[in-house]
């Protein structure tokens, strides 16, 4: 994990050094002797919590100290609030599905590289509403509420070098069509029009805002198809 990659995910300098040291503490070496994914994830979150407290970037109650306390969005991994100054979105992002800092940095760095309009910065750590150790992520608050059409999404993602891939999966007896995008480096999913959330928004100038797409290395996808 390159230091420059980590630095690009950090918030303002007053917090950046402490967050940097915390991320460096959450490395794979702390998982020695852990056999299962659950054990490795628990070891990682314990490392992060202690390091964040040692480096003064732990927030006992991030929701009420950094936001207006009103949740504006919720997914499987994060709860989203508007910042006190109304110009940022604050995401309390659970680390329970990660086993080291590289998992977190990869997700943020990939998003920032592909979709700079909704770039993340890590500004600290806390516990979420489920009492799970979480990263506090900050990104621009998207003012528009207009959903982009699937055709517009397709054309944009293909214009930045991705291939559109359609597939079907069967869940509980129902066949569901899926759309992903892939190039030689990344696979993007959850960047589609659907009823469960505003995944991609568009403003009056035609700028697209990708809201928390799921990005993984392309080789992971290739190995499983």
Q: What topology emerges from the helices and strands here?
A:
Elements: H1 3-7, H2 13-25, H3 37-54, H4 62-66, E1 67-74, E2 78-83, E3 88-94, H5 101-114, E4 121-127, E5 133-140, H6 150-159, E6 163-171, E7 174-182, E8 186-189, E9 200-202, E10 208-210, E11 214-217, H7 218-222
Helix pairs in contact: 2-3
Keywords:
2 domains, alpha+beta, single chain, four-stranded antiparallel β-sheet, about 220 residues, 11 strands
Summary of the model, kept short:
The protein has 225 residues and is an alpha+beta fold. The chain has 7 helices and 11 strands.
Structural notes for this entry:
The two termini are 27 Å apart. A hairpin with a 5-residue loop joins strand 4 and strand 5. The chain has 225 residues and is an alpha+beta fold. The strands form three sheets. Strands 1-2-3-5-4 form a five-stranded antiparallel sheet. A four-stranded antiparallel sheet has the order 6-7-8-11. The protein has a two-stranded antiparallel ribbon with strand order 9-10. The protein folds into two domains: 3-140, 2-Layer Sandwich (Phosphorylase Kinase, domain 1); 150-222, no CATH class. Helices cover 31% and strands 30% of the residues. It is built from seven helices and eleven strands.
């Amino acid at each position: 994990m390159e230091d420059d990659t980590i630095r690009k995910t950090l918030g303002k300098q007053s917090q950046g050094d402490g967050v940097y040291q915390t991320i460096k503490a959450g490395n794979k070496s702390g998982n020695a002797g852990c056999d299962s994914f659950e054990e490795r994830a628990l070891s990682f979150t314990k490392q992060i919590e202690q390091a964040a407290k040692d480096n003064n970037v732990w927030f006992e109650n991030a929701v009420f100290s950094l936001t207006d306390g009103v949740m504006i969005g919720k997914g499987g991994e994060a709860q989203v609030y508007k910042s006190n100054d109304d110009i940022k979105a604050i995401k309390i992002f659970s680390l329970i599905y990660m086993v080291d800092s590289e998992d977190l940095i990869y997700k943020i760095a990939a998003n920032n590289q592909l979709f700079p309009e909704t770039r993340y910065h890590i500004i600290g750590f806390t516990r979420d509403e489920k009492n799970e150790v979480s990263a506090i992520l900050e990104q621009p608050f998207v003012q528009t509420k207009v959903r982009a059409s699937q055709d517009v999404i397709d054309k944009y993602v293909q214009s930045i070098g991705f291939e559109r891939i359609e597939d079907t999966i069967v869940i509980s007896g129902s066949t569901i069509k899926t759309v992903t995008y892939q190039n030689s480096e990344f696979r993007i999913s959850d960047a589609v029009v659907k009823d469960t959330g505003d995944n991609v928004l568009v403003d009056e100038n035609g700028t697209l805002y990708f809201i928390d797409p799921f990005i993984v290395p392309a080789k992971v996808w290739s190995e499983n198809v």
